[in-house]
């Protein structure tokens, strides 16, 4: 490159010499030529210095560029290596989590299967217990038998009670009361379980008296008995389908008098559940 520069400058110098006015005296021409040579030399020196400075700057810039590229390359390699490590770590974490998840799912399925199996076994056992009693016995152990206490009157009869109109009859004397279905303090029988029940009311009507009793379920009359001017022992029976907690009681609908004879209590209320 420097050879090309020198050749160019030499050409410029030759052109200057050839352009000199030949009519000038020799001494004047030499002086002018010398001045031109000096100027050209200075110009060459300045140009050379500029070229040298430019070369130095280019070299420095090249070094800086190489350093910057090297730094960026190192940073890129470091980042790539870091990302590769992070990806490997993430992959390991995902693999571990996936294994744990599948283990938990498998454990959950096993537990759920065992629980469902146990529940089905319990249901099957309960259904078996419900089915087995059918056909073996028509009566269940839900039953009661209650009476009215005896009060002696002056004629030798055992007068039990005088009832008013729409009065609930309460039988205080409990003879039998399985599962405590009958409450002697309120006169209500409450179903301890759902089913078909049979109820029986017995009473002894006095002579020339109007006796009117009803067996009632939750306010609805199941059956009734009406005796007018008849003396003797009477009974009435009713069947009812009861839900759990349904109540049944006896109600008087007129001014009634009931008796017992020779210590035998004739006024009673009974009930039991029947399995059909």
Automatic annotation (TrEMBL):
Gene3D superfamilies: 2.60.120.40. This is C1q domain-containing protein. Its main location: secreted. GO terms for cellular component: collagen trimer. Residues 137-276 form the C1q domain. PANTHER family: COLLAGEN IV NC1 DOMAIN-CONTAINING PROTEIN (PTHR15427:SF33), EMILIN ELASTIN MICROFIBRIL INTERFACE-LOCATED PROTEIN ELASTIN MICROFIBRIL INTERFACER (PTHR15427). The keyword Signal applies. It is found in: Secreted. It holds the Pfam family C1q. Keywords: Secreted, Signal. InterPro entries: C1q_dom, Collagen/C1q_domain, Tumour_necrosis_fac-like_dom. Residues 1-19 form the signal peptide. It comes from the Eukaryota. Coiled coil: none annotated.
